[in-house]
Design a protein that fits this description.
By secondary structure, the protein is mostly beta strands. The chain contains three helices and 18 strands. A four-stranded antiparallel sheet has the order 1-8-3-6, with no helix packed on it. The protein starts with about 40 loop residues before the first helix and ends with a strand. Mean pLDDT is about 75; it is low at about 10-15, about 20-25, about 35-40, about 60-70, about 75-85, about 310-315 and about 320-345.
Length: about 350
């Protein structure tokens, strides 16, 4: 009888046939290397592991719902610095000139500060010379859930911040309010935000307060204002910072007194006239010709000896004042009244 072939050893140290190419440990498809986790996934992995552990507990849910698990999940994310709002929040409006947010003058719009530090921009069309009131409101006036709105500022058409246009708590309670007089016409951008880490919904409203009054006299040599020596005139300082120029003919060597008067002497409504100076025919300020409170009470007074000769061609000099004015003049007396807001006289 033929002999059986010897059996191959299978014990320790025995030679084993290598696995077939492409085969796994059980002859299946090859094993794949684990996919690397993203940075966000690695950051939230402890919280997710904790959630999985919570859900495996018998009392993880109550009453057939998952309210308790949801509360514990929220707590877990807070423990690891990952708020649910920050994980899945979508910004409603960006903080660039490419924003889709628009608010009309005389109307309002709403938005949401989804996460701390979020800022929403809204385009608004303003007209030069017009005054506007911008209100950013939230919880203080039941206009949203945002506890402390912060109007981060007004930006021009290029996205450049206009100085002095940010406001915090200028409105009712913790709301924000800004009053602004437009210097140029066109598109502007309002930046809505929140103080600190506040989040929530808000309302943004823009309204026109009133048009800036027309200026009676410009502050250039092209002014139509004229005051004759021995005569008088009046004017008005319509807005803060306004300056009115008047032309007057002076003779070299002659001495003049210029008085700018307002409310202190019953010559107008202007509370504090300010004589800003005397200018030559080219519009250049003559040194030492400005005066504040040199007259009666808060009125202004300047005594000046004309240095320009002009035997045949008298020099036109421009008097610049701040306020409503009246000129009263005697033979060689000029009174110029004005400073602040209101009416006055120059004589």
């Amino acid at each position: 009888m033929p002999r059986s072939p010897p059996r191959r050893p299978v014990g320790r140290g025995a030679e084993r046939r290598p696995p077939r190419a492409g085969a796994g440990s059980a002859g299946g498809p090859p094993r794949r290397s684990p996919t690397p986790l993203s940075r966000s996934a690695r950051r939230h992995r402890p919280a997710l592991a904790r959630l999985e552990n919570l859900l495996q507990q018998p009392d993880a849910v109550d009453g057939g719902g998952n309210a308790r698990a949801g509360r514990q999940l929220d707590h877990a994310f807070h423990q690891h610095g990952a708020r649910q709002a920050e994980v899945g929040a979508v910004d409603d409006y960006p903080d660039t000139t490419a924003t889709s947010g628009v608010v009309p003058v005389g109307g309002a719009t709403t938005g949401t500060i989804e996460i701390a530090g979020d800022r929403d921009w809204f385009a608004v069309t303003l007209v030069a010379g017009e005054r506007y009131q911008i209100d950013l409101e939230g919880a203080p006036t039941s206009s949203g859930t945002l506890g402390d709105p912060f109007l981060r500022g007004l930006y021009d058409a290029t996205g450049t911040l206009l100085p002095g246009t940010a406001d915090d708590d200028g409105g009712v309670g913790l709301n924000s309010r800004l009053e602004y007089a437009a210097t140029v016409s066109g598109t502007h951008y309002i930046s809505a935000g929140a103080f600190g880490d506040h989040t929530g919904t808000y309302k943004l409203a823009v309204s026109a307060i009133s048009a800036a009054p027309a200026d009676d006299y410009p502050d250039t040599t092209a002014t139509s204002g004229v005051v004759p020596v021995g005569g008088a005139t009046t004017g008005t300082i319509e807005i803060a910072g306004d300056r009115d120029w008047f032309a007057v003919t002076l003779v070299a060597g002659e001495r003049y007194q210029i008085d700018l008067e307002g409310a202190p002497t019953g010559s107008g409504t202007l509370g504090d006239p300010f004589l800003r100076g005397l200018y030559d025919a080219t519009g250049t300020l003559l040194p030492g010709t400005a005066d504040d409170d040199g007259g009666t009470d808060l009125n202004s007074r300047l005594e000046y000896t004309a240095a320009t000769s002009g035997t045949h061609y008298p020099t036109w000099t421009v008097v610049e004042g701040l306020g409503s004015v009246v000129f009263r003049q005697g033979a060689d007396l000029i009174e110029y009244v004005g400073r602040g807001l209101g009416g006055g006289a120059m004589a």
